[in-house]
Amino acid sequence: MGNVNDEGEINPILLEFLDTDNFEEKYKILVATPVMDFDNLLIDNMASSIDVVIEDGDLETRVQDLKNCVRTRSRYESLRLRR
Questions:
Q1: DSSP class of residue 58?
Q2: Contact between residue 22 and residue 34 where contact means Cβ atoms under 8 Å apart
Q3: The pTM is what?
């Protein structure tokens, strides 16, 4: 899939993820996106945008690891905002 298509347009899933500042919304994007729409480059770019590294492995595991990282950050974000 890649992050840029043949017309030079950036992957809309990546754009939506990058444009969202809220980790809860980022998590919703990840959950709503089918695993088959991900590739390693997309996962790496999403992960680097939130300062995490997702270890190499099969695609489904990497997507799940990214979801877990974002969900954890979402929980900490909501706890921090409640104070």
A1: -
A2: no
A3: 0.86
